[in-house]
Amino acid sequence: MLRTLKKITGCTAVLLGMCLVSGDAANGQLFQAEKPDLGPQLADEQVTQMQLGMVVQAKTACRGLLGTIPVPLDWPEQQVRLVSEDVSPGVNISYRQITPTVKQMLVSIPYLPTGMEAKALVTVELTRHTMLPPDDPSKLQVPKRLSMDLRKYIGSSPGINPRHNRIRTISRQITRDIDNDYEQIKAIYEWVRENVEYVNGPFKGDVAALEDGEGDCEELSSLFISLCRANMIPARTVWVPGHCYPEFYMEDEHGTGYWLPCQAAGGYAFGGIPEYRPILQKGDNFKVPERPRDVQRYVAEFLTGKGGRPSVEFIRDILGYDEAGRGLSSNTNNSPFSQTQ
Fold this sequence. Notes:
This protein is mainly beta and 341 residues long. The protein has 2 domains: 45-129 and 285-340, Immunoglobulin-like, CATH 2.60.40; 136-271, C8orf32 fold. The chain is 15% helix and 40% strand. Strands 1, 2, 3, 4, 5, 6, 15, 16, 17 and 18 form a 10-stranded mixed β-sheet that branches. It has a 4-stranded antiparallel β-sheet with strand order 11-10-9-12. Strands 7-8 form a two-stranded parallel sheet. The radius of gyration is 21 Å and the shape is globular.
């Protein structure tokens, strides 16, 4: 479904993931002159439904089962509405936000007898907008002083190594003769696309992709992010079903911040993106309470228990309609990130 063009405004609440960050109010005044919005624009929208959750079967009696699954959050380019819950008797669900960019559904099953099945499924409606590049990106710049929230997006993550000597050297070479910040980032984007061929395969990270000259969406995104971070440009991964892409952070002269997306693997798209798939989470460096020592680039589905032999099917089914009204269905149960113990 199509809607009229909208502009992304300067800030959003913490519950929306802080995708846009506004500066302090000028002189504490209640009313101020309206500032020009220099960020990306929201364009066409598509409404889909997504079912998420898990179905657990007990091969032998199970006790103390705890499962988690990431659920979509609101972003300026995405709005989420709960439609329904389908939960078996004796199963409890709750939600927690482990970072401003990742939310999980928690599923607690105190006891599941042998041969029995328990389910915890939620259906959400997602309104997802495509994004157009800023009208005048020359007025955007990378902030010279980064807040604590932004500093984590210039450090290392699994498969993202901005301090690697070769990464740092190439980042300097790409940007050294370019003064404008936006054009520097664009040069990094085009360098990655020109020098790394898309080849699907298991995740190997930025340095291996650089050495091999090939990789898939995760490698191309990781390399772009790494080269940005090596140049002190905040950047992070955006995860959608079956794909990921990067986004980078810039501010206008008033200190209003914007996250701008680009398509590292696929059609050329920089500063905006023609993407309708639901955003599952943003970021690439996480620790979850169940595995506090492990650093994850993606918060995976997870199931653990105190006894018994459970089998679990994690559900991430997308249902909706295309612009012509035809039904869409994309089953994404087989997540490469699912974990069971």
